[in-house]
Amino acid sequence: MSIEELKYAIMDELRIELSNDPSFSEEMLSVKVDNAIREVKRARRYPFFYTEEVINRDLWDLYPNIKNIALYDYNQIGIEGQSASSENGENRTFVDRNTLFRGVIPFAK
Q: Is 42 a member of any domain?
């Protein structure tokens, strides 16, 4: 399975999850999914001899991580840099984004 198929599978699930969001943006979601895939690839530090097929298979194994990173980043649009928010008596604290990379262990140092 290709990276494009991975992207569209994640996009399909996130479209459903975000379907009630009146400000939903397909273009912004696409950017966030692409970026999450790139970041997971960078965090993995694949050895130079890994083929695209091996990398793609590994990325499919990291599907939940990629999806959660993309969703987190999409939901952070407009509030980048905040660690907490308080408005009209409602308080929000955000999880540390790095926890979403749990299980994404580099292959090489």
A: yes
Going by their DSSP bridges, the two strands 84-87 and 90-93 should be labelled as antiparallel
Residue 107 lies in a domain: no
CB 7 within 8 A of CB 29: no
Inside any domain, residue 39:
yes
Read off the amino acid at residue 64.
P
C-alpha–C-alpha distance, residues 58 and 47, integer Å: 13
Encode pLDDT of 57-103 as tens digits: 999 999 999 999 999 999 988 766 555 666 677 776 778 888 888 88
Question: Does a structural domain hold residue 108?
Answer: no
Please provide residue 92's backbone torsions phi and psi, each rounded to the nearest 5 degrees.
-130, 135
- Domain membership of residue 95 as a residue range: 3-101
Which residue has 């939903």 as its token pair? 24
Nearest Cα to 33, choosing from 58, 1, 55, 59?
59
* Contact assessment for residue 52 and residue 5, using Cβ atoms and an 8 Å cutoff: no
